[in-house]
Task: structure prediction
Amino acid sequence: VGEFDLIARYFARPVRRAALGVGDDCALLCPRPGTQLAISTDTLVAGRHFFADVAPHALGHKALAVNLSDLAACGAQPLAFTLALTLPAADEAWLAGFASGLLALADAHGCELIGGDTTAGPLSITITVFGEVPQGRALLRSGAQPGDDIYVSGTLGDARLALNALQGQRPLPPEVLAHARQRLETPSPRVALGLALRGLATSAIDLSDGLLGDLGHILERSRVGAEVEADDAIELIASRAYFTGATSQFSSEDWRQQAYPLALAGGDDYELLFTAAPQCRAEVAQAAATAQTPVARVGRITAQPGLRVRDAQGQNLAAHFASFDHFA
Ligand code: ADP
Ligand code: MG
Result:
């Protein structure tokens, strides 16, 4: 197929809320009066962010999921997105799988594909998402206050566990790998939670690079410090039963040493990390219930700058974990 047939066949769809979608020089969006547009871009590059032979359906899902996760972190309602696709070849079976994974997640969030660009080259996917948030109500990285609780949604570390296994660094039983791999390949953006946290969370960020590194961004923007309980964080590893259950071959000390880096610096979790005042615990629990997304407390914000990460012995682990930086 040629470029224009390809776009028409896989990516052109009738518009819903947008005034104009695929097919003209620009798309047109109509944000409602009293709202702000929340805009974010993320690129996935083959060999760096995903294995080039990953199932195309999963890749389509993940490319949009990581972008929706940024909207979630701002408490924005997804509206629309653009797709810049660089493809080594127009492989129709691959395109059909990719489009179905992408558009299924888009439909689940009412987020419409309104345009993009298609070029030949090494496989890479850039999505820009547009969301809507009532004027002045976006969740930011900059509002954390001393004394606030620090919360994380969902589970931590399983994506990194799968990555380690797929890279041959760690054998896992097939059922443990299958679950962890879902967390790596098809993360669930926490959009409903982000919306429920508007006016309640004092700051928020989505976890793409690892808990400590991403928390570091909140600390910097909010000019505060934090204490994190490492043993509360490792409780959030969904696969932990395999390592700590009655038939496990790992000692609890072995498990802790493996679990700390997974939960604290794993990356690719696409959960929300947020802060809220300690007197709002009941409201946070209510927001989590409304969003049908579990949340757990993993620490608190301090006026004293810096990050202290306590392990089971009360030792500070912070120095052992640096966040992922593409150019470091
Ligand atoms: P232009 O040359 O004006 O930049 P293009 O020829 O690149 O336009 O694209 C034609 C139309 O198809 C535009 O509306 C563009 O937004 C849309 N489009 C191109 N690639 C994609 C894609 N991968 N997904 C969705 N829409 C696309
Ligand atoms: Mg173009």
